Amino acid sequence: MRLIYTVALILLPALFFAQESDLIVEGGTPPDTLMLKHHSPGKAALFSLFPGGGQFYNKKYWKIPIIYTGLFIAGGFVFSNSKEFKSYKAEAINRYNYGITVDYPELSDQQVLNYKDQYEYQRNLSFLIFLGVYLLNIVDATVDAYFFEFDVSDDVTFRAEPYFHQSEPYSTTPINVGLTLSLKL
Length: 185
Fold this sequence. Notes:
Helices cover 55% and strands 10% of the residues. With 185 residues, it is mainly alpha-helical. A two-stranded antiparallel ribbon has the order 1-2. The relative contact order is 0.12.
């Protein structure tokens, strides 16, 4: 439940305070809104509350299996570490409260406590990794939606040329040497 509140707290400002771009055409009528396909980062963030939904909205279908693989692996570690933690915790309770050994007769009391602490730490870390993959899903969808309409054309040129300017003969102006950089987007 705390996770839902945290995610809602993070995403609500993006939904309410998102800026809308208005196109003003001088001397004409505003363009048809059906012709403009505005891609909303707020919608992408909202759709990605369901893992992979934002990537589907952004038409980045190849990212969806990666997200589910990360969530599945992290969730598997959460499940297995939680199972081991509960087992060692039950053994520690049996040993300290009732004085009986049930599952691990080869381990000392201190070893049982150490394993319990170790699996608790690993369970918590696995849960944080699961949460990180989930939040990365939301952030990726939001950022990708911002760059959805970004034009990436093949007409990008970067040139670096040496610059040499020799002054007039018998002039006190020094020789200018440098590098000229030009970028065409």
